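Study this pair:
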Amino acid sequence: MTPGAHSRDQALPSGELLNNIRASVLSQHGPVTSERIATALASSGQLLGASGSLAAVEQLRAELSGFGPLQELVGLPEVTDIFVNGPQDVWVDRGAGAEPVNVLFDSEQSVRALAVRLVATGGRRLDDGSPCVDVRLPGGFRVHAVIAPVSVTGTLLSIRIRRPRVFSLDELVDRGFMPEPVADLLRQALRRRLSFLISGATGSGKTTLLSTLLGLCGPEERLVLIEDAAELNPEHAHVLTLESRHSNAEGAGAVDLAELVRQALRMSPTRLIVGECRGAEVRELLAALNTGHSGGGGTIHANSSADVPARLAALGALAGLSPEGVAIQAASALDIVIHVARVDGKRVLTEIGVLERREAMLTVRPAVLVTAHGTTAGPAWDSFSALLNPAGEPLGKASVGA
């Protein structure tokens, strides 16, 4: 069992006691502190003993101001995601896929109460009028919640944890994310200021790799990051982050990613990065990369690098661009696609491809392929080599061990 997690064998304060103390503490103004909880517990007349009182205060503090029964999971450095599918159905992701943990809620009402409170902390509301909410909380947490009747099984809660530590490229190599020859090619791509997209499915390591690559940029460079929810934290001295804002309860005040890209261009970025291309902002990004802002890019959801052109076309349609218009813009704005995936539960880089336009069609041809059997040069190797070394001899295929 996860250390400190609640189980069926661990005595918990009664639901009535919890409700009484919750009402007492929340009726007072100011932050929820352990002292306020201890005072309310003492006033309840409940005799738990010294150790029982300490345990009760800690549980109540987590329930009232932290993540409740999930607090211990949040504190585990290897946990990146927490999924609550029901009161007795909690999962975590430690980097090798989702796995169940023995952490329990008292009831569906307890799950919903935690979700409502977390969403409220992020300045939003979760109720019948707004049953699906995504918010960012202080400390690097991204919370997504869905309640009934949209969720037919009750409250669903997903928490993504942004860890402050960023892996170096060498550490990713040591962890098996990519082989060293591929890491060296990425270093060259950053030095040559190639514009790029990192593609992959949810949880495949796109943000992790992007943070690492941005840390390779020169100290004199000014990085402007545009995100829907701030997750990137590159180890770099000059980083500015702009985060989108949802509309308020009256439907006003929204600031979308497209507007942030336009604002970022006025901030003299050396590299312009969109954390995730997911909508009409792709038009502004491609336009920016076509007007002297080389070396930028971002991430995009796609099942494979070959699917990136179709994904770009779909996003471009949201901005009123035709497929031909997207192909013309993207072929000029972007140089390479770096695809990451989960293979047998492990995050790995599987391909580096080159974006090319043939007539009105945009394609991604593989330049470097990484499999369990080794690394090989793909059909676009010569094009990739020319991008890395435009003034000299093409790189030999030995650069990837071929």
